[in-house]
User: What shape does this take?
Amino acid sequence: MSSSVSLPIWFAVVLIALASWAFVGHFVLPGWRWIVRRRINRVLEELDTRLKIRIPPFKLTKREVLIERLVADPQVQEAAEATARETGVRSSAQRRVESYAREIVPQFNAYLYFRIGYALARWVGRSLYRVRLGYSDEEGLAAIEPNATVIFLINHRSNMDYILVSYLAAEKAALSYAVGEWARVWPLQTLIRSMGAYFVRRNSKDPLYRKVLERFVAMATAAGVTQAVFPEGGLSREGKLKPPKLGLLDYMVRAFDPAGRDVAFIPVGINYDRVFEDRSFLVELDPDAPRPKTGGAAGNALRFALHNLSLLARNKWHRFGYACVDFGTPVSLRAYANSRGVDFRSLAKEERFARVEELGKELMTAIAGVIPVVPVPLVATAFVREPGKARSELELKAEVLDLMRKLSERGAHVYLPRKDQDYAITVGLRMLTLRHLVDEKDGLFTARREELPLLNYYANSIAHLFA
Assistant: This one.
């Protein structure tokens, strides 16, 4: 004998939903995790044989474990106790420590970095620029101790720096960037964390936050994590190298043990024939210029994109010239400290800051020396030296060749496309005329008066090489 059971529609829907949830939780998700882990392990096995600087275990540790380790760090707990005594609320200080730790600590995904991130960086970089590796001190790089912590120190010209350096350094190492607060928006922050970057609040006055950040940077440095840092602390608005911000550098060296793992600073110089943000930088420098609102900035970016798409559709689009990266001679922190008889751990605060400032200046000098000379800054230099002068192409080439000679005498790294000086000058001049920064009339070239600030911006990127 059979009978039927009637169920309300809402109850049947709930049962189906619960069954689906159980199926996904017990079968689909575990299977997906197994596939992902398998792919990540394959990537790690390949990288273990390919990378010159191997990925340390610290970088592959689960994020929750690193957060717990950072929160439980004795120095962090001591700072939390001091804050609790000042405020009278211990639980509040502890919650702030956990919040700061979660904000800072990354979650590196090797598959995302080397399979997706690298391919994307390569495609974007090569689509927009003629990307070149100009100079690399391979002998110096090969001499770095196998277990040393490597820190890439880079001059900051554009937000494209992250992409280009990651692309060109991918055969050497997986870089962990120190990224500003601008990137802490969803879903960008999740992607950036997965690429191994950690977030930094610039100019934070909160001593508890600074202590958490300090201990994370110190832990990562002691564990051998390869990092990439922009010591200027931000983009150069004038095109010139800015004085270094010493906070991160201080965190890296204050616990350095000369008898332990060495730290190798690699100076990296980057330069462009065109920086996307160049006109925005000039607006920021002009106190009388109207400041675009958020919508206006987005509109300018959209118009720029549509203009270039229009050129592409008419087969008139050109890439934005050359983007060149140089890797200089590594600076060993152990050798530096031993040569000066310095142990940063034993110094008082004021003396340590003075010593870190000396180190920062030396490292910035090393970065300045490897900034590549690319065509547009080179040709722009000739125009800004005598801005009112009209030149024939032959006269301009003679001036620029003289600049090349002076740069070579000073040991600068001049990138010559096709190893042809004449072609390099032609490329630089063509870029400036296409952007209407230079006018041509009756075979004579003249800098536009209203565009002199922009010409100066590009000339400034190599001005220090003539000093």
The chain has 19 helices and eleven strands. Residues 9-50 form the longest helix (42 residues). The longest strand covers residues 263-272.
